[in-house]
Amino acid sequence: MNRRQLIGDVIGLGPHWLARGNWFADHPARRLPPAADTLAEEPAGMPTAAETPPAPTAISAPAATQASTSAPQLAAFEPVAEAKRPSPTPAMPTKPLLGWAELEKAVANCTGCRLCETRTQTVFGRGNPQARWLIIGEAPGEQEDRQGKPFVGRAGQLLDNMLAAIGLDTERDVYIANVLKCRPPGNRNPSGDEIVACQDYLRQQIEHIRPTLILALGRFAAQTLLDSTDSIARLRGKLHRYQGVPLIVSFHPAYLLRNLPDKAKSWQDLVFARRTFRQLIGE
Ligand code: URA
Predict the structure, then answer these.
(1) In DSSP terms, which residues pair with 241 in a beta bridge?
(2) CA geometry: angle 236, 239, 241, nearest 5 deg
(3) Is the pLDDT of residue 45 over 70?
(4) Helix (H, G, I), strand (E, B) or coil at 61
(5) pTM score of the predicted model
(6) What confidence tens digit (pLDDT) does each residue in 195-230 have?
(7) Distance between Cα 91 and ligand 1 center (Å)
(8) For ligand 1, what atom is nearest to the CA of residue 179?
(9) 3-20+34-59+98-280: which CATH topology?
(10) Alpha helices (runs of H) in the chain, residue ranges in sequence order
(11) Residues lining ligand 1, Cβ inside 6 A
(12) Which of 76, 85, 97, 217 has its CA 20 to 30 A from that of 91?
C-alpha cells in the first residue's frame, strides 16, 4: 500500500480508485441488492454491465479508441444518444465578459443575493484556468467557506482521488468550480434567486476556460446546468451540452461518501468521461 492509499484509508476514503482487470465483475457493489432509493433512481434505459449498448454512441470514434482502458464489461456503458434538452439554453443575462482577475474580484465583492450576508468569503474556483476539464459542483460547504476554495473537505479529497484515478492532476489538468460561489447557511439547498444571481459568474468562467469537457457533479449542478428536472440516474451515461460545451453528469462525491456501492457507477461515469474526452481531442 502506498502513502496515498494509507492516507485514504485513515480518512475513510477507501476502497481506492484503481482500475483493475475484471474489477466490475468482482466488485461487492455488483453482488449487493440495490438500495431502495438507488433502485428508484435507475432509469429504464440505463445499460447494465451485462447488456449491450441500446443505441449508437453520440460521438463516433474509431473502435480502437473506445473503451480501450477499461475492464471488458465497461463496453456496455456506452454513451447513449445525446440527451434531449427540455428547453433551449437557460435564459442568462448577458453581461460583458470581464477579464479573469476582474471576474474574480467581482465575485469576491458580490452582493447579488442574501448569501453575501452569511458567507465568510466567496469561493471562486481552484486548479488550472487553462485546463481542458471543468468540474462543477453545487456550492461551498463549511470548509470551503472557511478556506475560500472549492472541494477542500472530505468530499474534495474523494474528488481528487477519483480524478487521479483517471490520470488527472487537480492542479494541472482540471479547473474546479461551483454553481454558487457562496455557502448557503447550514448547507441548505440553493434557492432559485441565488442561482440566478450567480449564474453569470459561471458562464464567464466557462467562456474563459473554454474546457473540452465539463463534468457536472450531483443532482443540483446537473439539473441547474441542463435546466432539467430529470433524476441523476436519467442524466448519467449521456453526452449533454452546456453553452455548447460537452457535459457529462455523475454523482456528487459527498453522496458517494454516504453511498459506497454507487462508487462503481461513478467509476463507469469517469471512464465514460475519459473516453469521451479522448475522442473529443482526437486521440
Ligand atoms: N460540495 C460542492 O458541491 N462544492 C464544494 O465546493 C464543496 C462541497
Answers:
(1) 246
(2) 115
(3) no
(4) coil
(5) 0.73
(6) 999 999 999 999 999 999 999 999 999 999 999 999
(7) 24
(8) 3
(9) Uracil-DNA Glycosylase, subunit E (3.40.470)
(10) 3-10, 23-26, 28-31, 36-41, 100-108, 115-118, 142-147, 154-165, 192-209, 219-226, 232-235, 253-258, 263-280
(11) 137-141, 144, 150-151, 155, 178, 254
(12) 217
Dihedrals phi, psi of 52, to nearest 5 degrees: -90, 155
Asked if 55 contacts 81 with a C-beta cutoff of 8 angstroms, the reply is yes
Q: In whole angstroms, what is the distance from residue 173 CA to residue 212 CA?
A: 11
- 222 C-alpha to ligand 1 centroid (Å): 13
- Residues in a beta bridge with 216: 136, 249
Residue 57: how many other CB atoms lie within 10 Å: 17
pLDDT digits (tens, 9 = 90+) for 83-105: 443 333 445 557 899 999 999 99
Cell numbers for 231: 433524476
**255, burial (CB in 10 Å: exposed 0-12, middle 13-18, buried 19+):** middle
Task: Give the span between the Cα atoms of 27 and 1, in whole angstroms.
Answer: 19
Instruction: Give the integer Cα–Cα distance in Å for 176 and 209.
Output: 11
